[in-house]
Amino acid sequence: MLKVRGLTKKYGGTEVVCGLDLDVRRGECFGLLGPNGAGKTTTLRLLLGLIEPDGGSIELAGLAVPQFAREARMKIGVVPQLDNLDPDFSVRENLLAYGRYFGMSKAAVAARVPELLDFAGLASKADAQIAQLSGGMKRRLTLARALVHDPDILFLDEPTTGLDPQARHLIWQGLRRLIAAGKTIVLTTHFMDEAERLADRLVILDHGRIVTEGAPRALIESHIEPAVVEVYGEGLADWTRAHATAVCTRFETVGETLFCYTHNADPVIAVLQHTPALRYIHRPSNLEDVFLKLTGRDLRD
Questions:
Q1: Residue 212 neighbours by CB distance under 10 Å
Q2: Where in the sequence is the domain holding 145, given as residue range(s)?
Q3: Same domain for 134 and 95?
Q4: Tell me, what CATH number does 172's domain have?
Q5: pLDDT tens track for 171-216
Q6: What is the pLDDT of residue 120?
Q7: What residues contact 217, with CB distance under 8 A and at least 6 apart?
Q8: Total structural domains in the chain?
């Protein structure tokens, strides 16, 4: 569904996308992850034909981009990072108007609307104005709107940012239904648990380059020890000097927390039980651990 080779883009003297190669297979959810400034937004704009590359090639839904970007966009759905619903239209009218942009007849769009409202859980809100919707409802409507022309591939740019846990889970349920139905999804997100739940494969970008690629579980197993113990509290520095090297395979101190990465957490916990002033969290390693190891913990603006 998407084939990218040697994609490059410069702004001024800075190369923000550096020879990117990507393949997205039909029917998979593909994650595009990276810290702020890693090149994700520029990459998305290049893939959608909104800006022209300085080098490389893009084939989207069987069409060369940017040469046939308009034709390619007729085959894709986009959920932008910020909702851009029309505030002057009702929920139903937003869907009807959007379908017309893709050359659908009024009858064809009208036939799609009940199914899309049901998918978004908004059947009872069909005649509501946009201002009457919660953030989660707006996000679900934006997703439903992107499906109005039954696209071959969906681009989702941080689809659950700003939503509460209940709304996030509803969005995830909808995305799983789409994946189960064979839709192809390209997902960008800052929520590593979201990528771990939804993505079949993903890449992590940093400074415009791919630093790793693969299935989430495979990346966790190959990059990070299986157990993590987060330790914090009074006397942490003394405990770290006395015990961390002996009981941790690898460790990092970040602010007031020690991250102890290990293949066996039992010795770590046994020592901690003799230091009641310290508190700890024992958990399995996850995709966020991989992300932070490969891209660093420094704040990006």
A1: 19
A2: 2-216
A3: yes
A4: 3.40.50.300
A5: 999 999 999 999 999 999 999 999 999 999 999 999 999 999 999 9
A6: 92
A7: none
A8: 2
